[in-house]
Design brief:
Layout (H helix, E strand, L loop, with lengths): L1 H8 L2 E9 L2 E12 L3 H9 L1 H7 L3 E3 L6 E4 L3 E9 L3 E5 L1 E2 L10 E9 L5 E10 L5 H4 L2 H20 L5 H6 L1 H20 L4 H15 L5
Antiparallel strand pairs: 1-2, 2-9, 3-4, 4-5, 5-6, 5-7, 6-8, 8-9
Helix pairs in contact: 2-3, 5-7, 7-8
């Protein structure tokens, strides 16, 4: 469990604001370092054979301007691709999402560090009107990304094949998700969230990711 919590502590989380084609947006930002060369990290986030090992299987026309779909429903368009430093996609979920283009985007930015590792930044921007935010706050997507980046860390470290959704159901995974939800609550407070609203959002996020087993 200590290694898992060390990975949780390795991530710097921030909630902010931004803009999308659909208008004003809120952002969740996850920033951390991976002890792997930038080309290796880029390969892990773009090659389908490796992407499926830490996120989910992906299909589609995987080039700039093409579209993708993850097993489970997330889909979108590849908006930006500058190997090995920037990947940007629209990020939609469910068929009804196509009625609101420009409402959610994910950027992954990579930069080499002097020690041979890689600085990794993921920014997920979602339109302010997106219905999950008032209930769950930044943890709505933040906890899921925390779980995915933990699995990516394992893949980069030793090639381990893992399923972050299955891990989330384990006792260690449930504790990780609880602590991740609390960490996103702290990021929400730091961004100016009202304490009562933040506490309610953390409770809702925790209940979503760590449901009562009974």
């Amino acid at each position: 469990m200590k290694d898992v919590l060390d990975e949780l502590a390795a991530v710097h989380r921030r909630m902010g604001t931004g803009s999308l084609p659909a208008g004003e947006a809120y952002t969740v930002e996850l920033r951390r370092r991976y002890d792997a060369e930038i080309d290796d990290v880029w390969d892990a986030i773009t090659r389908p054979e490796r992407l499926r090992r830490w996120l989910r299987p992906v299909t589609g026309d995987l080039r700039l301007g093409g579209t993708f779909e993850l097993e489970g429903g997330e889909h979108g368009e590849i908006l930006r691709c500058e190997p090995p430093r920037l990947l940007g996609v629209s990020w939609l979920f469910g068929p009804e999402a196509d009625a609101w283009p420009g409402t959610s985007e994910v950027d992954v930015r990579l930069a080499p560090d002097p020690t041979g590792g890689t600085e990794f930044t993921l920014i997920h921007a979602a339109a302010v009107g997106e219905p999950m935010f008032p209930t769950y706050g930044p943890g709505a997507g933040g906890v899921g990304w925390d779980l995915a980046l933990l699995t990516l860390a394992r893949l980069l470290a030793d090639g381990e094949i893992a399923d972050h959704e299955e891990f989330g159901k384990s006792s260690d995974g449930r504790e990780f998700s609880r602590r991740s939800a609390a960490a996103w609550g702290r990021a929400h407070l730091a961004a100016g969230g009202e304490p009562e609203q933040v506490a309610a959002a953390v409770a809702a996020t925790t209940a979503f990711y760590v449901p009562d087993p009974t």
